């Protein structure tokens, strides 16, 4: 791929990075996907490059001439405080040095607990370690934007729903429902919460990149609202599985699992989001970017098809 003409750079090839790269490529746009091991989707318009994205000089070289830099990277959940700062700094540096439009994939952690719907104009008020990491990333990017050093925007998702996403629903609920065995989660099982379908996350990222109104502000991913119990019951029906049995895991049980698995140990500080405190308002995204939430049944049907193959 020549760097002399416009194209897009996507850092990260997880479910969202892959979906974003494919959306761009399928619309006829050229994409360079940068990951540590050179992974990414197979497509004639997608170039896969192995590089360390914390190397600002190398990332700048790979980004030069691009139209947009998408930050879809995701360090291990238990290593955010150590791994995110150098990675975020390198991405922002590359954006500043090249003048590329910088689109960050974020989440709602930076708001902290919110009484009522979350809107994009809420201040950063994190109460958790991971929330402070995300808030610091946005604060630094926004400062660069306001100083005229970069054009930045952030797309914020809630709890993910979809094929291949890293979520407790996929890790715990799906296999137990299919096996006909009880599933235990630390969530409030009946509290409505927002779910961001992975395809909608990618569509919002691409729409934000293409909008002249994006820069210097954040966007929420249009998301559906349902309780874990409602989603689980519907998933069981779609897979012809027995009626599901859900129980609420105690904090003590969660901590015991966390001592065996450091990633699971990170869930406790974010549990406030599963107790009815993740109502994401994406009215502005739907109005200005023309992205709306995919019906929950569509996401669950795709998930059911993926696990029944």
How would you describe this protein?
With 309 residues, the chain is an alpha/beta fold. It has a domain at 8-158 and 195-223 and 280-293: Rossmann fold, CATH 3.40.50.720. 39% of the residues lie in helices and 17% in strands. The strands form three sheets. The protein has a seven-stranded parallel sheet, with helices on both faces. Strand 4, helix 3 (80-98) and strand 5 form a beta-alpha-beta unit. Helix 1 crosses helix 6, helix 2 crosses helix 3 (80-98) and helix 5 packs across helix 7. The radius of gyration is 19 Å and the shape is globular.
The share of residues in helices is: 25-40%
Strand content: 15-25%
The CATH level-2 architecture of one domain is identified as 3-Layer(aba) Sandwich
CATH H-level homologous superfamily name of one domain? NAD(P)-binding Rossmann-like Domain
Q: What does the largest sheet look like?
A: 7 strands, parallel
List the strand order in the largest sheet. Answer: 3-2-1-4-5-6-10
**Briefly, what CATH class of one domain?**
Alpha Beta
Mean pLDDT: 94
Query: Whole-number radius of gyration?
Result: 19 Å
Distance between the termini: 35 Å
Instruction: Count the E strands.
Output: 12
Order of SSEs: EHEEHEHEHEEHEEHEEHEHHH
And the CATH topology of one domain?
A: Rossmann fold
Q: Which overall shape is indicated by the principal axes computed on the Cα atoms?
A: globular
Low-confidence stretches: 1-5
Number of helices: 10
Which class do the helix and strand fractions yield? alpha/beta
Question: Mind sketching the topology for me?
Answer:
Blueprint lengths: L7 E4 L3 H12 L4 E5 L10 E5 L5 H8 L4 E4 L8 H19 L2 E7 L21 H18 L4 E7 L1 E3 L6 H12 L3 E3 L7 E5 H13 L6 E4 L3 E3 L1 H11 L7 E3 L2 H10 L22 H7 L6 H12 L2
Parallel strand pairs: 1-2, 1-4, 2-3, 4-5, 5-6, 6-10, 7-9, 8-12
Antiparallel strand pairs: 9-11
Keywords: NADP, Oxidoreductase
Protein name: NAD-dependent epimerase
GO molecular function: oxidoreductase activity
């Amino acid at each position: 791929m020549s760097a002399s003409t416009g194209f897009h750079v996507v850092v990260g090839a997880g479910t969202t990075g892959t979906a974003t790269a494919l959306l761009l490529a399928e619309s006829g746009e050229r994409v360079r996907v940068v990951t540590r091991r050179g992974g990414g989707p197979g497509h004639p318009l997608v170039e896969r490059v192995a590089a360390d994205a914390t190397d600002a000089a190398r990332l700048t070289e790979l980004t030069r001439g691009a139209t947009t830099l998408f930050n879809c990277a995701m360090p291990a959940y238990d290593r955010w405080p150590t791994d995110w700062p150098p990675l975020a700094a390198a991405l922002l540096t590359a954006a500043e040095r090249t003048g590329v439009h910088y689109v960050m994939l974020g989440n709602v952690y930076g708001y902290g607990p919110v009484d009522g719907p979350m809107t994009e104009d809420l201040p950063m008020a994190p109460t958790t370690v991971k929330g402070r990491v995300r808030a610091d990333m946005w604060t630094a990017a926004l400062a660069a934007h306001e100083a005229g050093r970069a054009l930045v925007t952030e797309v914020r998702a809630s709890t993910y729903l979809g094929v291949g996403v890293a979520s407790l629903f996929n890790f715990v609920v799906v296999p137990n429902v299919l096996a006909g065995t009880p599933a235990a989660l630390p969530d409030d099982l009946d509290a409505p919460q927002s779910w961001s379908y992975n395809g909608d996350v990618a569509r919002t990222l691409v729409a934000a990149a293409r909008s002249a109104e994006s820069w210097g502000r954040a966007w929420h991913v249009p998301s559906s609202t349902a309780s874990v119990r409602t989603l689980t019951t519907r998933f069981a029906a779609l897979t012809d599985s027995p009626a599901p049995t859900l129980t609420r895991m105690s904090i003590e049980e969660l901590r015991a699992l966390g001592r065996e698995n450091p990633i699971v140990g990170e869930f406790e500080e974010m549990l406030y989001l599963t107790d009815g405190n993740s109502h994401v308002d994406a009215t502005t995204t739907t109005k200005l970017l023309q992205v709306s939430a995919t019906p929950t049944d569509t996401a669950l049907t795709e998930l059911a098809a993926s696990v029944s193959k």
